[in-house]
Amino acid sequence: MMSDKFLEYLRFEKKFSPHTLVSYQNDMKQYSEFLKKMYEIEKPEEATAVMIRSWMAGLMQEKMAAKSVIRKASTLRTFYKFLLREGVIETTPMAKIISPKTPSRLPVFVNKKEMESLFTDIKFPEGFTGVRDRLVLELFYATGIRRTELITLKDSDVNLYNLTIKVLGKRNKERIIPITPFFKKYAEEYRSERKKIGTDCASFFVNENGTPLYDQEVYRMTKKYLGMVTTLQKKSPHVLRHTFATHILDNGADINAVKELLGHSNLSSTQVYTHNTLDKLKRVHKQAHPRG
Predict the structure, then answer these.
(1) What stretches of the chain show up as alpha helix (H) in DSSP?
(2) Pick from 71, 96, 121: which residue ends a domain?
(3) Could you tell me if 117 and 56 lie in one domain?
(4) Is 170 among the residues known to form the active site?
């Protein structure tokens, strides 16, 4: 099946993350089941633009979020582009498909007072767990790295002498991110507690039993502590990524430097974080200008 070869291509050539692969796999499965049920077509490569449009229309009629439909359309674009490359098809049916538009939403972020409260007012548990949990939150806020990047961070990637960490981002692209002496203090404390466990795990962040942290564990940890300082509905690691970017831009950081720190491929991905800076400039302008 070409859909199976497509997933192998994403895994071994495109180096997609396990999380992204699961999304693509689910999209392809749902799409294939639709074609089989509605058109008795076993091979997705035989589908037409009319069939694809019918599938997407059905998803929207089922009240699926526009963002999810757009992602599924992106999956199909990548799939049919792969088929073109393999010579299976001569033209892609996606050329006639227009994805639905979704209203742009500003990134959700925690304000500065709440972040300060997280690290000064919240009492973390004594011992390994408390030290580790605090360091996880410190690293998210200090660097803006993604959850997967934090989980896959190796002990050898954390250089406390040079005050840097080496992060493996999307598409296996490495980047070096500076850390502060303040972060170094807590990292040294964590490594001291980590030694007491006696683990030989290569991962930097581990559990009490010495095994690597896993995705949902980091999410629950972040949600728990953010829930102590903010009333935001979303309390995920990605909110801390948004918070990092918004706060340093608000303090005058160069947007191109922030782009590199976040590991963005395009500047447009970073520009969404300038909203807070612009709001601040508008307030200053209104208060200071004679005709404001």
Answers:
(1) 2-12, 18-39, 49-61, 66-86, 112-120, 128-143, 147-151, 181-197, 215-226, 237-250, 255-262, 267-271, 275-288
(2) 96
(3) no
(4) yes
